[in-house]
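input
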Amino acid sequence: MTAWSAGGGGRNPGGPLRDRVFSGARLFLLSALLLAGIGACGRLIGWVALTTTIGPTAYLLLAHPGTLVSRWRAAVVGHSSAVGIGLACLAAFGLWRHPSIVERQQDTAAQIGAQALAVGLTLFTLHLLDAHHAPAAATALLITSGISRPGPPLYGMLTGLALVLTVAPLLSMATSGRADGAG
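output
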């Protein structure tokens, strides 16, 4: 019997593969439950709450429960900063009521400028605040592209973010029993 199969050195008797399978199953179940719930809530209130920024945020909060506190702080600071910066860039470039890139099936020079500036400022801000959260860049893009522009699209995205930032940590703590760590 090898050390790997016997779980030598204090390891799980099933080995690292078994640990990955159980961790993966946990992520699958929690993320599917969380996103289905967020989607259902959005549908009930008539807004699209599942946007491209929700999935990566859910992953970061669910996948590594030992770093939950620092990841939650980064997510809240990151998305809050991105929303403010995205809205400011919409206003600065005169895009507040401009059709989204989906409606136009292309972006304008002003949208490209707003998108580039919003992501750049978001990354700069997150670096200054030591709150690294990559999905926040998607939030800035969703706003400045007009996909989640002011009104119901933005309200839906904000609702989805609020739900994932509230429920994912609770799910993570309930299924792992820990929320410690600063990594």
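quick obs: The first helix runs from residue 3 to 6.
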